[in-house]
Amino acid sequence: MVNSYKQKTFLSRWLPFIRIFLGLVFIFSSVAKGIDPVGTSYRVQDYLLVYGWTSLVPYALWIAFLVIFSEFLIGISFLFKIFIRTSAGAMLLMLIFFTVVTWLDARYNMVTDCGCFGDAVKLTNWQTFFKNIVLILLSILFLWGNRKRWQKKPKFLPQFLMLIFLGAGFLGFMFYNLNHLPVVDFRNWKTGRNMTTDTMQKAKTYVTYQDKKSGVKKEFLFPRYPWKDTAWMARWTFVSQRTVAPLVATKYNLVIEDSLGNDHTKAIVENPGFQFILVSFDMSRADAEGLKKATVLSDFLSKKGISMVLVTAMGLKTAKRIEDEYGLKIPVFQADETDLKAMIRSNPGLLLLHHGVILKKWHYHDFPGSGQIKKFLTSPAQ
Fold first, then answer.
1. Is there a contact between 286 and 344 (Cβ–Cβ < 8 Å)?
2. How high does pLDDT run on average in the chain?
C-alpha cells in the first residue's frame, strides 16, 4: 500500500509537467507550420500523391489548415486545461495516426521530409518516428494518471469561449501568412541573406618534372619546389603542368536556364546591380491581378534601366504566350518547380536582390508601387 501510494504521489507530481510539455510541443508544431501554410500544403500533396489519393490534391491547402488548426487547439487545450479529457483522447489518436505514417516514411522512405515542424526544425524520418513514440508514451501516461480526476464535468461556457477566442486568433494568423508571406522565413531565400558564391579554396597549379638520369617523374605544388636552385634545375626537366579549379560553394540549388539550355543563374542571382526576379512556378495558375501589377512594375523598371526577369517552371513558349496576354515584356527563363516554390510562397512572387543580397520579397498582394521602389533604389539598406 505504501509503495502504491508513493508511486501515485510521484506520478501526480509529474503530470502537470507532462501536460505542459505535450501542450507546448503541439503548439510549437502548429505555429511552425502555421507560419507557412503553403509549405505545409506541399507536404500534404506529397503524402496524397504517395498514397495515390490524387483526387484530394486540389484540397491539400485546406487539409493542411485542418491539421494545423486541430493541432493548435489540442495544444492550447492541454496548456490551459480546456476540455482536457477530450483533448487528451484527440491527442493520442492524432499521435497514433502520425506515428504509423512516419513509420512508413522511415521504413520505405515514401516522403523524405514530413514537415512536422515546418522548416523551423528539420528531422529525419526515423527521428520523427521515435519522437512520436516518446509523445505517445507520455500521452498514455497522462491519460492513465488522470483516469480518476475526470469525473467532474468541466465548466463548458468559459472553456468554450476561451477556445473560440484563441482559435480565431490563430486562424487569422494562418490566413495572414497565406495571403502575404510567412512572418518568419526559415528557408534559404530569406530577406537579408547574401546569395553570392563562396570560393572556399583558390586555384592550385601543379608542375611535373623528370629526373634526367633516372627518368623518375615527380609532381610539385607550384611554387613549392626548388626552382631557384640552378643545380637542381640542371638535373630535372619540365614535363607538364595542371591547374585544379577553385573549390566553390553555392548557397542555392537553383538553376536558371534560357530556351537553349544556357545557365544564367549566377548572372541573375549575383547581379552586381539591382535585380528583380518575378517567380511563377505555374503561370497558368498565377494570380491575374499579380501579373497585372508586375506588368506595371516592369514598365517602370525598364525606363529606369533596371533588370527584371521572369523565372517559371512552365514551357517557355507557353510562358511567353501568357506574358503577351498581360503585356509583360521581360526576359523569360526556366527553373525547377520545387526550387521556385522554395524561393517564395507566392504565385507570382517578387524578389529584389542587390549585389547578390536579398533586399526584399513580396507576395502578389503586396507588390510595390513606383514610390516604394524608388526608396529601395536610393537606399537599398532599408
1. no
2. 87
Dist. CA 366–CA 371, nearest whole Å: 13
Do the Cβ atoms of 328 and 294 come closer than 8 Å?
Answer: yes
More confidently predicted of 201 and 1: 201
Q: What is the DSSP string of 189-211?
A: S-TT-B-PPEE-S--EEEEEEEE
Q: Which helix (H) or strand (E) holds 6?
A: helix 2-34
Residue pair 60/48 in contact (Cβ under 8 Å)? The answer is: yes
The domains located in the chain, with CATH, are: 2-179 (no CATH), 198-249 (no CATH), 265-378 (3.40.30.10)
Distance CA 260, CA 262 (A): 6
Q: How far apart are CA 350 and CA 328, in angstroms?
A: 14
The identity of residue 7, as a single letter, is Q
> pLDDT: is 227 or 3 the higher one?
227
Of 20, 26, 11, which Cα lies nearest the Cα of 141?
11
> SS3 sequence, 11-34?
HHHHHHHHHHHHHHHHHHHHHHHH
pLDDT of residue 248: 52
Helices (H), 51-155: 60-80, 84-108, 125-145
Other CB atoms within a 10 A radius of the CB of residue 215 amount to 7
Asked whether 354 and 273 are in contact (CB, 8 A), the reply is yes
Q: Average the pLDDT over 207-214 and give the result.
A: 87
Contact status, residue 235 vs residue 213, Cβ threshold 8 Å: yes
The three-class DSSP label of residue 203 is coil
**Local confidence band at 259 (pLDDT 50, 70, 90 cut-offs):** confident
pLDDT digit string (tens) for 54-63?
A: 999 999 999 9
pLDDT, residue 153, reads 61
Greatest Cα-to-Cα distance within the chain, rounded to the nearest angstrom: 101
Three-class SS state of 334: strand
The pLDDT of residue 132: 92
DSSP string, 225-268: S-TT-HHHHHHEEEEEEEEEPPPEE-S-----B-TT--B-HHHH
Rounded Cα distance, 13 and 9, in Å: 6
* Range with lowest mean pLDDT among 76-90, 149-163, 282-296, 340-354: 149-163
